[in-house]
């Protein structure tokens, strides 16, 4: 009991010391007075001013648009700073924000292109005063709107020599779109030559070892760069359709050149004839994740064009899984096929067996082989193999699908193939192309 009593007495003593101490009460009263003054000053003073930055300007261009003139401007140029005055209660940041201030600019009547200076006017609430608008005017360009489709060109800011290391090469840069619709002032669009997709590969990505896609900035090929500020590349450069540049990266290797043969006799399937190609080796590029080609095929040679002796051809390379690194004008190769070990034999094939391909079921086909060269057909091969061949060992194949079936006149058609049906003649072939005459009649 005594302890509780002593405690209460001590508390009473502390409270008495606070409330009966004149100095402490004086300090407390002073602080309270400052707080009350601040509240009144902030909320009820009539002389407070405040500057509000970044207030958007509302542009009324309806009169200009009646003549098909539209305003062109940068959005950040239609922001102004406004100084207001009034009671702090009315103009503090909680009561008055940028979206409650309306600053208007009216174009008026416009009948010619050019820059026009517009005066800014506030639309006020009754209890707010506009002290200052900075700037007090804006300059807007007016012209007729035009759209055009323009070619897109990809560009890189990097040094091309630093993009890839040895053993790799960079192909043709590819923008994400080849053409773009650009809209803007008619004279500017008329003078626009192309759109650039300009990209930069970050240093931590270099050197590249695979094809890479990089985000790009859009710029315009204009004589006066300032005019590009009013151009818009429609539907490109958005999150849904970003502007990008693809950098094709390929591996590089030097491989021998080669040719393919078609219609070759079976004995040449595994061991083709001796061939010389100039140049014998070429530098090619191929995809880094692909297998290195063993050779580069410069073209195809039909055995029906090969005779005994040295056969010479000039071939233009076709791109396949690999591509030549030098210019297309250099993609011509001189090819010689040495068949001097072979002989030739002329044979009358007019008595040979005929096979019609792609016949109509209700039609009858008759062949006349006594014209267009079949009377003196040329065979090529080793001399001992040719000696054994006779006309009845040849099969003449004719595709009749292109012939007219509503007439019975004789029609000329190319022979599709002449096959040699003889054992031990897998090293012989027919040289040249031939035709036959065919008549189509009802069965």
Helices and strands, with pairings:
Elements: H1 2-19, H2 22-44, E1 48-60, H3 62-65, E2 69-72, E3 79-86, H4 88-91, E4 102-106, E5 114-123, E6 129-134, E7 137-156, E8 168-170, E9 174-175, E10 179-185, H5 186-190, E11 195-199, E12 212-220, E13 232-233, E14 244-247, E15 249-262, E16 274-278, E17 281-286, E18 296-302, E19 309-316, E20 323-324, E21 332-339, E22 343-347, E23 353-357, E24 363-368, E25 377-381, H6 383-388, E26 394-399, E27 410-420, E28 429-431, E29 435-442
Parallel strand pairs: 1-4, 7-11, 15-18, 23-26
Antiparallel strand pairs: 1-3, 2-7, 3-6, 4-5, 5-7, 7-10, 8-15, 9-14, 10-13, 11-12, 12-14, 15-17, 16-21, 17-20, 19-21, 22-25, 24-29, 25-28, 26-27, 27-29
């Amino acid at each position: 009991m005594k302890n509780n009593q002593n405690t209460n007495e001590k508390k009473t003593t502390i409270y008495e010391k606070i409330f009966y101490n004149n100095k402490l009460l004086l300090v407390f009263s002073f602080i309270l007075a400052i707080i009350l003054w601040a509240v009144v000053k902030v909320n009820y003073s009539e002389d407070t001013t405040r500057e509000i930055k970044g207030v958007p300007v509302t542009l009324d261009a309806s009169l200009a648009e009646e003549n098909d003139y539209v305003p062109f401007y940068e959005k950040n140029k239609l922001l102004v700073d406004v100084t207001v005055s009034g009671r702090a209660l009315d103009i503090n940041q909680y009561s008055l924000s940028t979206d409650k201030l309306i600053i208007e600019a009216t174009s008026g009547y416009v009948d010619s292109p050019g820059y026009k200076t517009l005066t800014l006017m506030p639309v006020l609430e009754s209890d707010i005063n506009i002290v200052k608008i900075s700037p007090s005017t804006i300059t807007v360009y007016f012209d007729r709107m035009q759209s055009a489709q323009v070619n897109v060109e990809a560009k890189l800011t990097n040094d091309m020599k630093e993009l890839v290391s040895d053993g790799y090469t960079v192909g043709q840069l590819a923008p994400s779109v080849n053409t773009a619709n650009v809209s803007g002032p008619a004279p500017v669009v008329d003078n626009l030559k192309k759109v650039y997709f300009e990209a930069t590969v970050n240093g931590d990505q270099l050197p590249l070892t695979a094809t890479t896609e990089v985000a790009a900035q859009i710029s315009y090929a204009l004589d006066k760069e300032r005019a590009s500020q009013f151009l818009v590349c429609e539907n490109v450069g958005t999150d849904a359709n970003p502007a990008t540049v693809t950098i094709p990266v390929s591996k590089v290797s030097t491989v021998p050149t080669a040719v393919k043969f078609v219609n070759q006799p079976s004995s040449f399937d595994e061991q083709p004839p001796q061939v010389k190609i100039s140049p014998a080796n070429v530098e090619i590029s191929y995809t880094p994740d692909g297998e290195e080609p063993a050779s580069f095929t410069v073209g195809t040679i039909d055995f029906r064009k090969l005779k005994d002796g040295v056969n010479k051809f000039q071939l233009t390379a076709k791109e396949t899984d690999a591509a030549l690194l030098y210019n297309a004008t250099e993609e011509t190769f001189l090819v010689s096929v040495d068949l001097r070990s072979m002989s030739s034999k002329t044979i009358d094939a007019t008595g040979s067996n005929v096979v019609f391909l792609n016949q109509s079921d209700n039609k009858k086909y008759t062949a006349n082989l006594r014209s267009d060269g079949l009377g003196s057909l040329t065979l090529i091969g080793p001399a001992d193999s040719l000696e054994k061949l006779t006309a009845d060992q040849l099969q003449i194949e004719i595709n009749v699908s292109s012939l007219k079936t509503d007439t019975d006149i004789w029609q000329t058609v190319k022979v599709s193939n002449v096959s040699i049906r003889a054992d031990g003649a897998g090293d012989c072939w027919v040289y040249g192309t031939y035709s036959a005459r065919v008549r189509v009649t009802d069965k």
